[in-house]
Structures are given as C-alpha cells and as structure tokens.
Write a structure and sequence with these properties.
- The structure is a homotetramer.
- In chain A, the strands form two sheets. In chain A, strands 1-7-6-5-4-2-3 form a seven-stranded mixed β-sheet, sandwiched between helices. A four-stranded antiparallel β-sheet of chain A has the order 8-9-11-10.
- Chain A is of the alpha/beta class.
- Chain A has two domains: about 240 residues, Type I PLP-dependent aspartate aminotransferase-like (Major domain) (Aspartate Aminotransferase, domain 2, 3-Layer(aba) Sandwich); about 100 residues, Alpha-Beta Complex (Aspartate Aminotransferase, domain 1).
- In chain A, helix 2 packs parallel to helix 10, helix 8 packs across helix 11 and helix 11 packs parallel to helix 13.
- Chains in contact: A-B, A-C, A-D, B-C, B-D, C-D.
Chain lengths: ~350, ~350, ~350, ~350
C-alpha cells in the first residue's frame, strides 16, 4: 500500500514500450533524433500553438533552468512559501539564476490569491539599486496542497504579474492531474491564461525520467539550448526523452494515467472521511489527500505496511488546529495505485477504529 | 555505416532488459532503490576498494560535478587543450566550480606528458592572492586522440600532481575502451595509479544515459549529494541509473561491449591503411581512428551514406602536415558497429581509389 | 538639518588627517603598507585577542564576503527580515556565497529573540539533500530599529546557533554606536559572547570609506585574501584603509564620535516626545530615532529643509497601529550632527504644533 | 629608488586636495553627490560624447564588472595571454561574468595583431551549444609590455571584433600614459576606434583609489548600477571617487602626471641602454621599461635600495633569448619618480659596470 509519493511508482507499460522501441539502432545525438522532433510537434498540437520545448531529467532542472531564462540575478521570484522551488530544490534556483532571490508568500498550504500577491508587491521595497526587482511569479499546478488553480485564478494572477512587468512560470510537476481535474484544454490553463513558461512533469505520472520546459513566450527560449548544456542537462541520447514523451502523449495516455490517479485519491478521501477522528485538510482536487490523523493511527498504518508521509504542521489550514496527539499527513496516489491498495487501507482504517 | 560517434549508438539488449525489469512496481525514490545500492556494491567489487559512487545522466554533469568537489573557485584545473571539459562542455566547468579556471596544456592531440606537466607548473605565476592555485589535474582516458594512458603514465602524472598539492580527476567517458585495451585491472589504472575521482562513462558503450562519479578519495565525496541535488541532477526514479549499471557491469558485459568496439576500430584501421593517400594520425588503441584523407574521399563517403566527422586541423600530429585538399577526420566505432558497416566502408574505399 | 542617514555625513577631521598623512611617498601595495599592519595590531589590542582583519570599502562587501567564508551554497543564513543583508544589499549575499539562502525571521523591527530563533530552527525542514542546512546566524548591531543587543542577548543567541552547528556573524555597521551605548568592552559583546566574525563599520561614523571584516574564529579567515581579491575588493593602495583605521581607533576617537551621535539622538528623542501626536516607535538606544508622525508634519519638515526618511510600515511595533494620515519615519544622527540642527528641528516642531 | 610599481606611489597633491575639500559637510550618498555628477560631465567633455560612467575602487572590479555587462556565461573573452584579466585578477572574471571563459592569444609580451586575432577566431570551434561563443575582445592600453596600441591598430582590431559580433573592451589601467604617448584625442583612441567600454585607471597615475568604467556603447550600461551594487562596489560616500576624478581631470592634471611618468621612463631607458650587458626588451612607449639584465646586476641593485621586479621569462621577445645568468626585469616609473631616483640608479649602474 504505497501512498508515499507518485515518484515511487514505476513506468507505465506504454511509456516503457516507447523507450524499448527507440533503444535499438543509431540515432542523432543531443536531441537531433526523430522522437524529440515528433514530441515537440505533438506538444504544439496539444497546446494549440507554436512553442519551444526542451526535455530534461528532473523537475528541479526544469524549474530552475526555466527560471534562469526569465530573470536576472537582481530579480526576485515570487512564489508560495510551500512551493517546491522554495522547499525541495536546495539552492538550485540560486545556482541556475546566478543568485536571484525567492520571495515567499503565504504561510499555510492554500493557493496564492490575488490579494496576497498584490499585498506582497505593494510591500516590497523598490529603491534601485538596493532592492531586488520582481521578475517572475511562479505558480505550482497542482499546488503543494493538492489543489488546482482554475483558469480564472491563473488569469487573474498572471494579469497582476504582467502588469508588474513580471513573467509567469508554472511548475507543472502534477500538471496532468490538474488538467483532468479542470477538464479544460491545455491551452486554456496555460498560455491563454497568461503563463509564459510551463514545466510539464511526466516523471510523477508514468514516465521514467522526463520533464519538459515549454516556452509559450518564445523570446525567452532564445538561449535555452546554451543554458541546458551549461548545466550538464543535454543528454547525448536524446531519444531517452523523445521516446517517452511521444508515448506519453499518444492517445491521451497522459490524461488517462492522471485520471486514474485522481480517481484513486477521491476514493481514498471517501474512505478516510468516514471517521470523525480524521480531518481532511484541503479539498481533494487531484491525486493527493492531506489529512490530520491521530498519531496512533499513523503508527498503526506504518506498522501494517502503508507508506505515507507526515507533513509540515504549519502547512495545515489555520482554522484547523492540530489536536494533541494528532499529526498532519499526506497520501499520494498515482496511475499505478491498485484498487487493492485502497481496499487494504480501508480495511486497516476499519480495524483501527473498531478497536 | 555510422562512424559518427558512439553516442549515436543504441542501447545494448542486456542494459535495456535491465531498465525494463526495473520499471514496474514501486521503489524508493532519489537513489533509495535496490538497484542503485547493488550497483554501488558491484563497483566496489570491480574496483577492489571501498568507494563512493553517484550516478548522473550526462558526461558533462559527471565531470563538472566531480571537479566542483575537488576545487575552490580560486583554483585552476590543468588539462589538455583538447580535453572534453575544455572543448565540449560549454562553460559547465565554470558554473559548477563557481569559476575555477582551466589551464590548457599541449597543442596537438597527443597525450599529456610529465614533461609538459612539469613545464606548465613551473611557468604558472604563484603570487597569492593574484594568481590561481593549481587544484586538479584532469586526464582523459581514452584521450581525445583515441589513445590510452598506461598505468605507468597515469602514475607518473599523478605523482607530480599530488606533489604539487593537486588532486587527479579522470574523465573516463571511454574508460571501458581503455581498460580492455590495457588489459589491466580497473584498480590498477585508477586509484592504485593515483586517481582520486573517476567519471566512468557508460552512455557511449551500451547504456541509454548513465555516467558514474566514483570517489576513491572518499573525503572529497562528503558534500556530493548536495552538489548533485543543487544542480538538478538527482533524478526521482533513481532506478533508471541503478538498473542500467547493474546490467552493464554484470558478467563483464561492459568489457565485452568495449572489446567489440575496439576490435571494429582495429579492422577499420587495417582497411584504411591499405591506401597511401590515407594517413592514420595516431596509434589506434581503442575505438577511434583519426586519419588525414583527401577531401574528395570525404565527400564521396558522405554521399554514399557514411557518417563520420571532419576534425580539428590543429589536433593532428605536428610531424604530419595536412596536405592541400586533404582533411583530418574521425571514425568512431561502438559495440553496435556491424561487420557489414566495416565491409561497406571497405568497398567504398576500394571503389574510390580504383577510379 | 540632516537626519537622513549617517552615511551622508562627512569625514572626521582626525580621520581625514590620517588619509592626508599617508598619501605622500611610496608604500607597499595590496595591504603591504605600514598603516594596514598597525591597524590590525590595534584591533587585536582593542578586542583583546589575536584576530584576522581585512579592510574593504563597503558594508555590503564586508558582510557578504564574511558570509561567503562561513557558508557553503547549500547552507542557509538566518537573519531578521529587516536585516541590511536581507533588504539593502540586492543579491550580493547570493553572489558572494554562490547561492546560499537567507531565511528571514520576525516581521516587525524589533530584535531577534531566542524564542524566535528556536521556533524558526524547529520548523525548518531537514531532509538532506533537499533542504538547506542552517549555516550562519547573522545579527545586526545596532538593529535595524536602532536598538542594541545586550551581552546576554548575543550570548544566548550565539549559544543556540553554535549548538545547531551554525556560525555567528555580526553586521556591525553601527557597532561603535552600540558599544558606547552598552558601555562594555569590545571583547565582551563580540567573541566572548560567541561572535565568530564581526563586520565593523566605520563609514557611518566618521570614516570616508572603511569597513573591517574581523575574524575571531581565525580558521574561517583561511581563504579570505583570495575571496577579497576575487571580488575585486583588494585595493592597490591599501594605505587608504589602513590610515583611516589607525586614525579612527586612536585615542578612542571612534568611541567619541559614536557618543556624540548617540547623544544627539537622545536629545532628538526628547524634543520629539514632547508632542503627543508623535509616537516614538522603539527605545532610542543608539543614533536612530524611529517615530510615527502625522503626514502633514512630515511634509512640513521636508519643506523646511529637514532631511529624514519615511520608513517601512510593517517594521513598526505590532502594538502601535499607524493611525490614518500618519507615517513611520526614521531620524538618524551622526558624529557631525550640530546642536543647531537639533534646535532647528525643535523649533520647527514647536511651530508646527502651535499652529 | 622605487621602480617597483606605479601603484606604490602616493597621491598627487591636487587629487589629495580634492578629497580634502569634499570631506566635510553632508552630501548625498551612493553617488548622488555633486562631485560624482561633475566628474561624469567632465568625462563627457573630454571624450567628446555622451557616455555613462561609474566609479569603483579597483582595476579588477572595473574590468570584471565591465566584462559582466558585455557577455553571457556562455561567451568567451579573447585577450592576450599576458593580460591583467588573465594573469592578475584571480578568478574575478569568472565570478563577475557568471563563468564566461577567457581565450588566451599570443605567447610573448608583444601586442595583439589582426593576424593573431583572425587566426584565433578561425580556429575556435563553433558547434552550438557545445562551444563558447566569442563575446568580447579585450585590449590592454598600454599593453603588459609597456607598449601602446595606435589608433590604426585599435581600429583594425575592433573592426574584426565587431564583424564577429563581439564587443571591444579596453583595460586602460595605464590609459593616460598611452594617451600622452600617442598625442591623440581621448575620443580618437577609444570610441572612434571602436571601443565599446573603457576602464580608465587613475590609481596608478596619482589617485588614491579610483577607476572609471566608461560606456561609450550606452546600451551596455543599462543594468550596471545593479551589477555594481550586487558586487558590493557601490560606496556609500560616493564623493570619495567623484572628488578625485574632478581634481584628476582638471587642468589636464591627469595628462601632466602621465607625461612626467613617461618622461622618466625614457630617461631610464637611456641610462640602461648605455651598457651592452643590458638588453631593452620592448620599445619604451609609456612608463615601463622591460629589460634583460645580468642576475648579478639585479642583486646589486636590490642590495642598494632599488625596487624593481623580475619578470616572466616567457613574456620576453622570442628573438631575444635570455642568456645564462641573465634575468628579465621590469622598471616602472610614475608621476612621482624623482630625478634623484633616476640619477641614483644611473650611478649604481655606472659603479656596477666599472668594476
């Protein structure tokens, strides 16, 4: 019963077959292979626009290389205080951008709001050359609380950002989960809503190692080949990424995988919310369930083979105090979550609360 | 007929099967998977010593992350002027090391010699804090001319480097080709000969994307997990690398692949050296053949479907002037070079020179 | 009537004479002059310990070079959210440290407390290699609110920092003002209280351009000559700094200058606190007075030739809400503040409130 | 008898008076003082064009900040192998540019030639994104051999550089010495000859600490205020620089100082060239004399109180082999070289060779 993280899941059969098919025979190196070309073309179709796309092996590389193309070292990057770039990527943002600074907003795990963004911008000192100049707004889709920004929300935040001469970056490590949750078109929730650069994550949704940096604002892509090379992220056998992306995008495979993951999370939520001792922290809109549970339950589940993570207390909703002997936790589902895992967890919950 | 580069070759069947086998089911993320653990253990056995090993996706990342663990920004890195780190990795050495400087030695493609190293060291200004302090000697095995450093040569160069308070780095992008050429043990040509850190390349010899940074000098590995993460090179599904390395090292698979590649180069050399209009530039000791050929032959081969590269004129031996209408070229063989490719090339040569 | 900033003041006659005396004749370059040597020796006497000291031209250079000697790029630097390094030094901390991250504590202008430090440390995620490792606690003496850390406070904060494997940095841009306010010995408020590195500012207290980076923890100074040179901060005529420091330290000149500045601030406070419409925001412990005043008063003073700055609303005490049509302001005094300036301001206040 | 370096000289009386005059009273901080404004205006007049100018305290800062405004980290900077930026500024070029690479040309101390530049450019590999893209040509005026580029030479080199999409940087640490040697206008030898950015050094010619970064290509100056601040080079009391520059430029003071220095070097050359055992290495065109002398003479002079430096053997002219028991040396004169120093040296030479 693995609800630890979607990056602990394996590779979907279709994506693996894509790798296998591309692995024999010669092919142009450094992205000059047929699969990479096809994959970029497919992205253009899916996003209904001309775009530049580059593939790398990790989300940290995708995010931080993207940011480096959007800021100068004297700019700041505004993001949620729980953002992956703020919490989980060590000092990679600083390395890649040459020292741009993150400005953190919000102190619990909910989404960024236009109010929060406006207030933050109004409070930032603006005395050149002493103060950073805001350069990028970075949104995470889904958010670190497993919630999803609507088209209207992204549009409103982007509008403010652009008005303030900032670019908009979207960390889409779980973009496909958000997309199927929203049910809108990929274009509507990205460039049509003002997103300049999207980091589209596949590794958490069925790929082996694949992240795409997608430039809707193509002027920003001008030097990206150099940035990627300079950071050691230009793999010699580019077919590794091209083949995965081709397979992942074919026949809506990526969306089907995400739908499976999201459905599993919904089921999980239902199982959990049967018990009054369990509080669901945030609306379950994608493939993550955050909850506050008794510590004894946490131990019980661990002991009985459930993988899940305890989570940051200060990321929980302000209006939901963490009771004594209680613990915030995170359950993550993925395309490969089995019905039996859900049932197994459900049974453990029943056993625990019965006693 | 592909003699363009060994990074245009595909993946060996055994390595691919390794990836396939590891791709289903859950596994710990961020290198906490069983394959990564096994791979490191296997490396310890093969190199007959305790070592620290980290896997990344590109040779540039391997080399430059390794160097970053060996120098401060005010150190210099001594290497051949044709070294991959000097010629083919953009400014990655500078990015990763925070600005250490490469000091280039030698002006044609042969190997570094103790004389050259001693002379270079004796001429470097040493006025602290105005001048860089030599920090690393970087050797490439095989060299950029397809030649191989002997155990005695590596030992002698390392001795001088260590005497001068420098560490020794080995860029082993084609280490396995060198190893089978030497016929010695992996330990003898690395740590026993004074190498502190080896970048062991697999991508050019049958893997899909796999480079290992191997610390024989384990004190240098202390912060490497942080360095790798900070550069976005810690992949979430570490099994990608672990599984390849396990398969690659099993049953001497890596050595068999390299032997095939080397043997093909030897055959190629024989075919080429039949013709007096073709000059073999350097002894063929591994899987590359450098030659000076008529420009018309180059065009003829290209037209008839042969992939090969023209090469840097100033990398050719000083005593072998490039005749008018002649061109330096590079042929590379790999584990997947077919006998039919060699014969095909041989026939083309015959046809060309007959006419 | 200049209460704008102490860096708008001129040079004290004694310091200027020091520069003049050192300006003729030949002298060793790059700090190899007699004044630099004497100045370091004098600092050893004053701080009653062996120390390493280096002189640079700006506070930003002093702070950020010092920090670069105390952290790795994957460390974090904990400081108050109003700290000069956080608010007024652009991205210099990131440039010099290679990308270490500032962690900001506190949201109004008061001092750091042990509670705040402990809470912050307890909340920082510690999942290596994904999270920064706390490396330095940076204290500002005087604080950005013109207050002074006591020996007990510095000691208690340092104790926690050292316990958490962090070094302690003190930004002493106004250290001399703090020192005369405390009335203790320089040693007591620095190394005896746990400070590893002090940036001792002179530019705001009578010098022309002079900041000293003083290493009590001498192991940290090991590469500082290289760090300073690499950042272009090794001036060729080092006598510029050496001569100023000799004059500044002679006959307690630095302390006399600071006492004058502090006394002027006290007077100013008295003048201001006569009026109920003026709220003194923080205890006046050195040479700055922070107050909340009517906006009309601010305009009146400006119009009548008073230089002062409006200040950050969110730096004011939480328990002192800023009334409508009111404004937080900062008055700074210096060694050169004239009695007539105080009286002039006093008269303006009288005139304003009379009407 | 100090012929060690012009940075060991003191401050000219007029420049010192400028500092003294500006040191009392309040003034705007961070370059917002009257002297800085006047100095920039004066530079516009002298260079007969609109320009942007920024003042810093060291030549390393001037050069490397200037270069950082002219290149990206994936660019290269072409310069002579003996250039100050290559030999005497540690890794500052890399720090400030974020890792751009120096490409060194020439192996003895003479000037760069168009032939050398063209050959170098033609040999640089151009495989994007693997190779650096040439971004800047950096010239040193006077050269490291004390020679002067003519207007025609600078123009021809700049033409090639611009044709190759590179900017032209001039390290003018001894620009005033070159200028009086050439007898042309400042405009003719800089922007009219294609120079985009000039680093104008004053510290070696009568100032205390003063270097100007002058942008003739004003588009490149756009972010320079931020670059300077980020590197800790924005001094709070900008009058330090402004006042020196005003005094230095007034009444052709800078040119008079340089003329004195150059004349002293000419005298020195005459004294030295009387003796056949002394070989003058390069034409004496400014304020430096390079010579090859007997080692016994070197010791004799040192013992008798002469300061001079031994110099790099490989910087000497190829056609002038260094005889056994001989040594290359450098004599530097300055504005403050006394007639008595020349005569003193002359007498020592006489005594030495008589015996």
């Amino acid at each position: 019963m693995n609800f630890g993280s979607d990056n602990q899941s394996g590779v979907s059969a279709a994506v693996l077959q894509g790798i296998v098919d591309a692995s024999s025979g010669n092919a142009g190196s450094y992205s000059n292979d047929e699969w990479t070309g096809k994959a970029v073309k497919k992205l253009c179709e899916i996003f209904e626009t001309d775009l530049d796309a580059f593939f790398v092996s990790t989300g940290t590389a995708a995010n931080c290389l993207a940011l480096s193309a959007m800021v100068q070292p004297w700019n700041s990057i505004l993001c949620h205080s729980q953002a992956h770039i703020a919490v989980d990527e060590l000092s990679a943002p600083e390395l890649f951008t040459g020292g741009a600074r993150l400005v953190l907003m919000g102190d619990d795990g909910a989404k960024l709001t236009t109010d929060l963004l406006r207030t933050t911008l109004s409070r930032l000192p603006t005395d050149r050359p002493h103060n950073q100049i805001p350069g990028v707004l970075s949104l995470t889709q889904c958010t670190e609380s497993g919630m999803v920004y609507s088209v209207a929300e992204v549009s409103a935040l982007s509008f403010i950002a652009h008005e303030a001469q900032m670019y908009v970056h979207m960390d889409g490590a779980r973009f496909s989960n958000a997309l199927v949750s929203l049910g809108c078109s990929p274009a509507d929730i990205t460039w049509r809503a003002g997103v300049d650069v999207l980091c589209l994550g596949s590794s958490k949704n069925g790929a082996l190692a694949l992240e795409a940096v997608i430039f809707f604002n193509r002027a920003l892509a001008q030097d990206f080949d150099l940035r990627r090379k300079r950071a050691g992220h230009l793999v010699s056998k580019g077919r590794l990424f091209g083949s995965q992306m081709c397979a992942w995008l074919s026949d809506n495979h990526w969306l089907k995988l995400a739908s499976k993951a999201n459905a599993a999370a919904k089921q999980l939520e239902q199982k959990l919310s049967r018990y009054s001792a369990v509080q669901i922290a945030w609306p379950v809109e994608a493939n993550e369930v955050f909850a506050i549970i008794p510590q004894t339950l946490f131990s019980y589940l661990k002991t009985h083979g459930v993988r899940l993570s305890d989570w940051y207390p200060n990321s929980m909703p302000k209006e939901m105090p963490i009771g004594e002997n209680h613990l915030p936790v995170r359950f993550v589902t993925s395309f490969s979550t089995e019905q039996s895992e859900i049932e197994g967890l459900s049974n453990l919950l029943g056993d625990f609360f019965k006693s």
